[in-house]
Task: structure prediction
Amino acid sequence: MICGSGFGGILAIMCGILKMTGDELVHEFVGLCKAVFSEDLNTVQRTAVFEKEIKRIIGMYSTDGEDRKMIGEHDGCRTFVCAAAFHNTGHPRLFRNYPSRTNPSIDCMLWEAACATLAMPDFFEPITLGDSSLRETFVGGEVRWSNPSDELTKEATNIFKDRRISSIVSIGSGHPGHLSLSQGLSEYFPLIALDCERVADEMERRFGNTPEVFWRLSVEQGLQHLAIELSNLDALISHTHSYLQSARTTRNIDTLIQDLIRRPERLPVDGISGIALGVSEILRRKPCPPPSQHFTGRLADLQKLEEHFFSDRTDRKSCRIAVLYGIGGGGKTQIGLEFIHQSHGRFTEVFFIDASDRFTLENDLKAIATEISDKPTVDDALHFLRTSKEEWLIFFDNADDTSLNLRPYVTWSHGNVLITTRNPEVRVHAPECSIWVDKLEMDDAKKLLLRGVAVGENSETEMVALEIVLELGCLALAVNQARAFLAQNICTLFEYLPIYMQNRRTLLEDKAIQTTDDYEHTVYTTWTLSFSKLSSTAALLLELLCFMHHDAIPSRIFEDAWKVFERQFEDAVPAILFTFLSSFKTPDSAWNILRFRMLIKEILSFSLIEFNANNQTLSLHPLVQHWAQTRCHHPQEIIHSAQTLLTLATLIPESKDDYAMVMSLLPHLRASAQNGLTVHFTLLHCAGHAYHVGGMFREGAKAFEQEQSEMQRVFGPEHPDTVTSMGNLASAYSKLGQHRDALKINEQVLALRTRTLGEKHPITLLSMNNLASTYSDLGQHRDALTMNEQVLVLSTQILGEKHRATLASMNNLALAYSDLGRHRDALTMKEQVRTLSAQILGEKHPLTLNSMSNLASTYSDLGQHRDALTMNEQILALRTQILGEKHPDTLTSMSNLASTYSDLGRHRDALTMKERVLAVSTEVLGEKHPDTLISMNNLASTYSDLGQILGEKHPATLTSMTNLASTYSNLGQHRDALMMRERVLAISTETLGEKHPATLNSMSNLASTYSDLGQHRDALKMDEQVLAFRTQILGEKHPDTLTSMTNLASTYSDLGQHRDALTMKERVLAVSAEILGEKHPDTLNSMNNLALTYSDLGQHKDALKMNEQVLVLRTHILGERHPATLNSMNNLASTYSDLGQHNDALRLHTEVLNLRKRILGPGHPDTIDSSQWVNYLKEL
Result:
């Protein structure tokens, strides 16, 4: 509680309500005084200037602006200022920031209360306040209450009932003497000064028997004859410095600071209004309070205490000690009291000790010995307990003082000791029974909430109660406060949660008048007491943590960020973070890990955070996080620092564990950036890259858009860094499937770089590569081919054949060949890239492994599945060895190998592999990552809960699910495939958007499963929707659009709409031949599909002609042994049967069977199908 009158009242408002720091207070107070007294103003003018200035100050430091009410949230610090009624100065009028039933305050604005307490006659005008019917005029409180210490004790007695006080501090402005004034009131000030010191003397007498309770700080000499003028400011400062530097004052201030940190509870508050009793007079034995009548649960903890204290032990030469430790408000005291209650009669005596500080602990110990000594000492109490051979129990409650060593008080040869504390270090006294008191079990939390609340028990009530306790983090004190609030019938159980979400701070600070236990603190005040004891550096660390995700914060991010900004980005680091990180720098410029760990230990000592030593992560209870956020005075500055810290930390890693490290930072970066990124623009690309790594493409695009805007503003449109940021943005758009936006930007980038750097500059070539890639994304494969050929020629000419960039260009050209169905050309080039990569970079280099993966893909395209199998197995072994199993590239290799298993008909092996991929991908990337969505198309929803490294939503995890769903389909497990693909589609729509290419792929896959299940109408509806979207987004001639048209035509066939299927397939064939060429594999597939429709319509001669044509082309392009060629032979044989040419059909089916046995193996489904055809035809 803080109070004041006049300018003392203004200082009380600045400290207690506006929460200014010391520097802020001095700056604003001096500025206010200069504004008010710098000119020769009359009272009206001075009052107007003061009103303007105090409104400005309130507007700057209050979240409500200058409209802040006097009575409002008090953040644990109750504040009042004194004024006097103009017509009756006999009693003070108090303006409070908290409600009071005694002499209630006038409801007014904060600036009005400031004007009232300062309205000294002849200096300021009186102020009239109140509504129209009850208006009252006030003058300054210093007229009668220049030292409101007595009013403070009366208020404390009314507000803090049944509590104890630590210190009363009175700050004065000088001893009495005639203070000459340059204008009016010369007769008032001597009286004010005399009254101020008279009150101080009275307080000194009142607390004379209790040293170190009342403290008076007042400049004793040098101010008696100073005029109250700004010109004397230097003299005022000099006299004040002289006073503060005296040995007595320094000693008193040091002692007072320690008391303010430790807060020893010296006197009961109900004794401070009169003459305070001496220590020996207030000693009285404290009875052990009963537990709350609403105590619920904690059976495991009570059982541990039962076993520890009452198990049969032959060795009773030492004291049994148990420690209950954990977060404030967790319920430690109540567990202890409940245990004592349940153990009634089993201990000969129970001594309850308030161990919150040394003073109260030793006073309570002395009270034990009052029966054997008139003036008992601690030693008397210890001797009494030592010589008493009975089974007593000492309950040391709230032993939270980190400077207090309990060893002298718990070292016994017999007896029992129970300790509750927030300080985990106290566990050292109880190695056999230290119990971490965490949140309540959910069922116990629900029971506690509903105790005494008039609601019927049903499933709806249970569900609402569960939602409430989960929101409260199942913290015992928070749940109990909610129960008490509901018991007041202010709202119903069903109304509580929305009210709580809007008024969280108010409800968690609220203390019910009628309570069922003796606990005096609320959730927030409990933690505020702990926070007040932290050093400023520890407090800043806690504030930084509270704006990240509350769970699993890697402690190494601070060291990682420091290493980065020590090398670069120093200008991008906010001052507060720079100072904080620099404080851990050793003289030899290394990171002081010990100092940092000691800082963590300091916060741990109050259980405000948890530290997982195994993975070196920090966590906060969600309510602690919210409390720390609400009490933060400069949240935007802390958020900015937290974002900068996390972004810098994403830059450090360079090992195989780095990927997981970056992924572990993303939940924290996302939490700190809920209202947008505020990091320096030079760090935005780092944040964008981190988001992309995690599959958070939308957030990444926003970061790159922000970077692009800032670069344009700072450097201009053609600066190299601006152009680079444009490239980053184009890449982000490609990830989002916004290929036309990417195309537009990539064309701009290429034009700018060609103009500024020249056509043959390596960076220009990189831009050409990016543009070619966008052409491929848009299905413009011929444009991509032309540009890739141009890039390769230039790269070979400028950089040489063996340069890494040239190898990348060769690889891109090979991919373009594959897109155009030129698999033989792709094979030749990929083999060349593979050989050069191994020669230049080494067999195990990531780029060499990429080239091997590309080559394996071409083997598959050519039907050389056994060659693909050998290479994919080799790649997987190398990537697992080099990168680890959980790296995304390793997961890609596993997926590729699983696909090869499927190509070879080894669907069980494919299933096993894809299940593993999905599990790891969900764990590493997250369920909603696009790659995870693709994976999800390949497994069942039972795997949706597998993950914590990447998570279910990461793209790689979705990829794994997609692949697994495909394997289910291959195995005929269509219901499993359906469940998985529905889950993939839901997550993909949520994370990527309805029209993203990956989402459309998911829809197409789901439509296929509908067809497998015979739900052809559902398939039709979805195929039509996919085709509409792809036509709109990609255009009619994009390969993906042609695929959708083919799928829709197949669904028409399933529904017997063969004419519609024929029309659609003829259109597909025409467009495919136009854009891909007559000999492209996709064009041949279209011809094959059209032949099937001819058969469906009975046009067997047309089918025969087309099947013969497809067979000739596939044999020529893919080779006689390619699986697709064998399929054409099989289709042609079927057409022979349709035409009644059974001998020709038998001959051809037999040839296909023999080839499939050699190429695919006897157990492959296609081989089995051929065998069945042969047997059927032989029976005809």
